[in-house]
Amino acid sequence: MSQINVSNLTFGYEGSFDNIFENVSFSVDTDWKLGFAGRNGKGKTTFLKLLLGEYSYQGSITASTCFDYFPYTIGKEDRLKPAAEFIEDLKPGCEQWRVFCEMDKLGLEGDLLYRRFDTLSFGEQTKLLLAVLFSGENDFLLLDEPTNHLDQKSREMVRAYLKEKKGFILVSHDRDLLDGCIDHILVLNRKSIEIQSGNFSSWEENKRRQDEFARRENERHRKAIGKLREAAGQTKQWAEKNESSKIGFDPAKEHDRSIATRAYIGGKTKKMQSRVKQMEKRVEREIRQQEGLLQDIEEIRDLKMTSLKYRKERLAAADGYGLEFPDSGKVLFKDLDFEIIQGERIFITGRNGQGKSSLLKMIQEKATGIPQFGKGQRPVERGELKTASGLVISYVSQDTSFLQGSIREFCRERGLEESLFCSVLRQMDMDRNQFGKNMTEFSEGQKKKVLLAASLLTPAHLYIWDEPLNYIDVFSRVQIETLLLDYCPTLLAVEHDIRFCERIATGTISLDKI
């Protein structure tokens, strides 16, 4: 067993106002199955890149192990090739027979290795690259959101695989995955970093208790501050009253006083003033303690949305509907029957590559009349799919790669009020200093929050969300859960976070049964 030692780590991006890490120190055993959680933009991916030596930093990071990082970066030219032609570039020394073994464990057919990479679904691409990653030996794996775009069955496969493996850091916001395969967790809080033994749920319970204790202590400090200020105010008034009585008196009314009384009153006043100063110092000390108590508390703020009411209850319906690619003989699904009724929250389930995203795009295309498929990518329809006339759709794509330019330009293009849009992003815990950056510099979670915020500010009859929680931190997931339960919009979604689905869904459309 060896360790990864981090000592006095300080790092900030050039041009940034604040450091991401400030004099951070901790150690990680290389046989730990370590989960890594925290808010979007707090430095999780950055830390993995620091381990890989990609950035310069102050302090030291020492490790006696080799790292391998996921996800791999696939260039534009390589995306036009079969994966078999470039996996050696991704993982030097990679042997195809080992990749085939891992593909089988992840439920992939071997021919995917020889199909053009950009023709694979997001989920198929992810699992194929995971098979390449897992084909090595003795590497300490740095896994950055490995289950994004994976269906539930595939997530269970990855979870079971990681449960049997030692030596990795897993960045994930999937609560079910973290609980199923880690034995330690590292969390980036608002003002601190902590490592605990256990899984995400055990950390979450500990965090809840700590926050409750901090709130109780905070309330105690507030009461103490109020009493101290009241006492200080009274003592100060007494001191000022006594001070004003030192000089001058009426012999007829105060026959027992003399000039010598002045020294006595002065001494008494000095003691009172000293007591006031001591109380003020105690107030300042209590305030500092109060501020320190609350700096790490995660406050989940309520979001708002305005959905439109349609004149009819049924918004969309399918009768014997199917999608296929006749040239390749691939049938995505067939004989699908469903209705989408106003107020329902329907989740589409199915394996990767089975057509979940294609179905969402078809519904959007029929409702808006705007083509949703690129040239040569549109499947052939079978059966019937109808949408209500004049239906307004708010769509969140699983792809964020098209986001570029400034927040101001994005709002102008979407017809959104910039100040209101930024306010929603702030409620989703995005720092103000991000608003002046190009969106290409955002983390993947921050990009997804941009799309979600735009959707929430777009009044619609039907919200179509394609894997909306990819890269979104746990706290924001809870925030979105609360929003959907409070406002009950009509929602059609593809999402693989099982805990989110169990809490939100009023019904499902399963493509696995077709």
From TrEMBL:
Pfam family of the protein (one): ABC_tran
GO molecular function, a single term: ATP binding
Top-rank taxon: Bacteria
CDD domains: ABCF_EF-3
ABC transporter domain span: 4-215
Keywords: ATP-binding, Coiled coil, Nucleotide-binding
The keyword DNA-binding is annotated on this UniProt entry: no
Coiled coil residues, start to end: 269-300
PROSITE patterns: ABC_TRANSPORTER_1, ABC_TRANSPORTER_2
SUPFAM superfamilies from the UniProt entry: P-loop containing nucleoside triphosphate hydrolases
Protein name: ATP-binding cassette domain-containing protein
Organism of this sequence: Candidatus Blautia avicola
